[in-house]
Amino acid sequence: MTLICKHCQAELPDGMRYCGYCGARLSDPPLYLDTHQRSQIRHVTVLFADLEGYTVAANRLDSEALYELVQQYTDLLSREVYKYEGIIDKMTGDGIMALFGAPVSYENNTERAIRAALDMQANFLMWRQHVQQNLNLDLNLRIGLHCGPVIVGEIGSNIVMDYTAIGETVNLAYRLQEIADPGSIFTSAEVVHQTRAIFDYEQLPDATLKGFDHPVPCYRLIGIKPLTGSTRTGEGLHAPLIGRQLELNHLLQAAHQIQSSAQGKFILICGEVGIGKSRLLQEFKNRLTEENIPYLEGYSLTYRRSVPYWIFTDLLRHQLGISAKSTIAEIRRQLSQTLQSCAADQATSLVPYLEHLFSLPTSDPNYLLLIQNLEADQFRQQVLTAIRSILYPCHADQPRIWILEDLQWADEVSLSILQTVIADLEQTPLLIVAAARSENFPPLQKFFQSLPSTPSEMVERIELHSLTDEESHTLLAKLVDIQQFPAKLTQNILEHAAGIPLYLEEILRMLMDAGALVHSPSGLRPHRSIDGESLGVPITLQGLIQARFDQLTAFQRTVLQYASIIGHHFSRGLLEAILPVHEEDLQKTLQELIEREFIVATPDHPQGEFAFRHLLISEAVYNTLLKKERSRLHTLVGTAIESHYSGRLNEVIELLARHFSWGNQPEKALHYLILAAQKAMTGSLYEQAQKHYEHALTLLPGVESAHQQALQVHLGLGDLYQIRGEVKAARAQYLAALDRLSQMASPEVQEIRNNLLRKLRELTASDPALQERV
Ligand SMILES: Nc1ncnc2c1ncn2[C@@H]1O[C@H](COP(=O)(O)OP(=O)(O)O)[C@@H](O)[C@H]1O
Ligand SMILES: [Mg+2]
After folding, report:
1. What is the pLDDT of residue 229?
2. pLDDT at 321
3. Among 235, 238, 270, 278, which residue has the most ligand 1 atoms within 8 Å of its CB, making it the best to mutate?
4. What span, in angstroms and rounded, lies between the C-alpha atoms of 47 and 123?
């Protein structure tokens, strides 16, 4: 089925929610746009492609020929955008702007954008020859890519709504495209940071670009690294395996057993993103190789989700020894050899299906007809026969182990075949080890449900949990020179990483990219003073979390966003106060969010009975809100807390100070900051008190005639410095207080003034150097 865009009449593949040509919305109302919040900040990758030689073409061709040329060209580009799940934001005759990561994010947005760019250039090259021969025109394609935060949303009147992205990120991508050499792909440093594990780049001299104050680093994409597998390690960070010995031994034991068994086994390794599933499989494969135990591999990749039979095509390729570089003739030879040795009786009957599966040109025109006339189910049956004859162990040296990566991305047909294969395991000595995320992926869930629920002998599930605190610390110590790290920074990194190795690596990578960590002979160490307090969310993780967030319903997303405003911990009561919904609806949604592993219940926690699963999740969700929306909600939360806790405000002063200052309510913020500082002073928490007072100082200029508050801040800071023995600083604050007093006219002024003068005299007495200036 195809869809027709109501706005520009373009034909589109089924399942799209936005028109790839004009950006118009296709279905109403879309699931992912919240009714009250149509704009969002998102991390996206922006791709600009531009046709060089268009003006010459426009001058030379008549309008019909030009139309056809543009049609072919835009088809060529948009095909690649769709293939890698991007959308086309704008299209001019000779250029396009595409977004990866909006309106819906599918994770690894940058990788997909680059693959699209590479395929565009490859296809363009062929088309270019054709145009050269037929129209005698010399055309070239320039592509520029950049990733970063953009404001996206629907822009325009109610009648014509365009989904679009705006901001500096878009501008840089455009400028990079402008300076790109014909036929090349230029990218920003941010793109390189995120994808250097997968692609090779050449660094170019910094470029002076319109709209940018400083020269901008830029890179030329060279190509895909010769790398198989889906481990995502970038350079510079590689630790030995920490923990996971039990799991690894278990897999090895199963691998040994299967060699002499008559029955098979399916082991599913589950766990959240970055917990170490692929790493465990990698270690397992290393051990198998050491022991000369053969195995086959099948990968599922996000951008191959729409390719049916992918896992099994992969396994078959592996078994036949076909690589990306194999020629068609080689593939045919290997295919016929394998069929001869494995399934002589079916050798010829399977050829048409295998040719189709490997996308080979048909060797017999009748095959095409045969396949076209087949019902989907009959084709599936034939593939199953091929799998059984070629992949099931029928002689001694045939691999008995299959390793399936990222099963959550598997296409539905592969999953349904896998289900049948698992049912065969009773009589088939195969060990299938698969890794999958434990999150909610509808096709995978259906698959899980089809597996026996109690762990039988043949189906096992290994759940990978976060590393323990000790393991996390060991991992960090393997990656950096931990001696050089301030304790607070170490603690903050570990807290953010929450036992997930990927998070830990990405946080370090982010700090490296920012120049905050540098290599030294003894390992990574901090370069300059890092603000250990606010690490931020690595872009790669923001993308990962965003992709999961996009799968939620609008209401679930709103609840999460509101909760992220309240903080890492939150209570239902407060949520109810700021989100006017039915109690049961909220209760139900919170339960769903627990099931979807965004939040956890923390019934005994003083700050609320719920918390986000990880700090990074709450921060990433918070980052999706526009600044304006954030301040509005912080004020709402502040006001709700005030009424919720009236009578016992002392408990929540710090919270109120935070919400009102982030809510851009300087008067209220000032009020609570001073109270919070005074409270900290009473408890001798001087560092905290200083932070609050200093924060208050920065707010003073924004509040009119805040003499009283200013006085309190200066007096407070004066006392604080005095206690700490910082005489000079104390004196400066007291003098500032005196200055404020002179502008006030309340009855107590005189008394405060006397008090102050006494303090100043005492200070001076204790430090003779100051005496002459009083
Ligand atoms: N137990 C571990 N010890 C050391 N490094 C680990 C461990 N588990 C994972 N890593 C590293 O963390 C990163 C993410 O792990 P990965 O296996 O890709 O996660 P997953 O496949 O579960 O998403 C990889 O760089 C990996 O090498
Ligand atoms: Mg993985």
Report:
1. 45
2. 86
3. 278
4. 17
Spatial strand order in the sheet of 431-437: 296-299, 401-405, 431-437, 265-271, 459-463
**pLDDT one-digit tens code per residue, 621-663:** 998 888 888 999 999 999 999 988 888 888 888 889 999 999 9
How crowded is residue 192: how many other Cβ atoms within 10 Å of its Cβ? 20
Please choose from 286, 478, 502, 504 the residue to mutate so as to test ligand 1's pocket, defined by most ligand atoms within 8 A of CB.
502
Give the number of the atom of ligand 1 that is nearest the alpha carbon of residue 231.
18
Task: Tell me: pLDDT of 287 over 90.
Answer: yes
Please give the average per-residue pLDDT across 473-488, as a whole number. 91
Above 80 in pLDDT, residue 4?
A: no
Distance 545 CA to ligand 1 centre (A): 17
Q: What's the pLDDT score for residue 5?
A: 64
Q: What is the DSSP string of 606-653?
A: TT-SEEESSHHHHHHHHHTS-HHHHHHHHHHHHHHHHHHTTT-GGGGH
The strand pairing partners of 100, in sequence order, are 45
Find the 767 Cα to ligand 2 centroid distance in Å.
64
| Domains of the chain in sequence order | 31-224 (3.30.70.1230), 245-463 (3.40.50.300), 469-536 (no CATH), 544-773 (1.25.40)
Ligand 1, pocket residues at CB < 6 Å: 231-233, 239, 241-244, 271, 273-279, 475, 501-502, 505
What ligand is nearest to the CA atom of residue 272? 1
Q: What percent of the chain has pLDDT over 70?
A: 88
230 CA closest ligand 1 atom index: 18
Handedness of CA 394, 395, 398, 399 (dihedral sign): positive
Q: What is the pLDDT of residue 366?
A: 84
Strands 2-4, 11-13: pairing kind: antiparallel
